[in-house]
Amino acid sequence: MRLNQNTLLLGKKVVLVPYTSEHVPRYHEWMKSEELQHLTASEPLSLEQEYAMQRSWREDADKCTFIVLDAEKWQAQPGATEESCMVGDVNLFLTDLEDPTLGEIEVMIAGWVGVGTSLLAPLSSPLLDLTKFEAKIGQGNEPSIRMFQKLHFEQVAVSSVFQEVTLRLTVSESEHHWLLEQTSHVEEKPYRDGSAEPC
Predict the structure, then answer these.
(1) Which is higher by pLDDT, 113 or 25?
(2) Of 57, 74, 133, 197, which has fewest CB within 10 angstroms of its CB?
(3) SS3 130
(4) Count of alpha carbons within 13 Å of 34, Cβ hemisphere only?
(5) Three-class SS of residue 182?
(6) Residue 190 domain-assigned (yes or no)
(7) Per-residue pLDDT tens for 6-27?
(8) The model's pTM
(9) What CATH number is associated with residue 150?
(10) How far apart are CA 167 and CA 191, in angstroms?
(11) CB contact at 8 A, 116 and 182
(12) How many Å apart are CA 38 and CA 141, to the nearest integer?
């Protein structure tokens, strides 16, 4: 999404950076995992298809994609590439044309836990102007369901056809205050295609 293409979000445990072509090879390797394909309801893509997907996401006005980096590794190792620090991604989609305040969120963490509340940072951005967030998760993906519930998402629907649950966070005044509290440590910094330096 063009909105976040120059934005880096620095948290205590994770750093969120825009999804660029530098990240595609590692992302492609992750998505070869049958377990991740199952948990994310994804089909395997070729490397060329993955590059094409990254380009389309980058230009799409209805998607906001961040790659999640391990902040400790990224900051502690001078010259560490972003690819070597990658641990997952966060995607926001505008999916309901009739409700521009609703965004769908997807989080994928590839074999790493303890990401903390920094993942909420994109949700608290005033630039997005969203007040409701939904996550659609496979019924068997208990770790993801628990993570979203910990982040104040509540179950609102179950689809036996798609075997998924829908969780929603409605950002009331109290939830907005909670979001700001949880993300007060996150610093927004400029980002230019991998040129941002660890602090």
Answers:
(1) 25
(2) 197
(3) coil
(4) 0
(5) helix
(6) no
(7) 889 998 888 999 999 999 999 9
(8) 0.86
(9) 3.40.630.30
(10) 31
(11) no
(12) 9
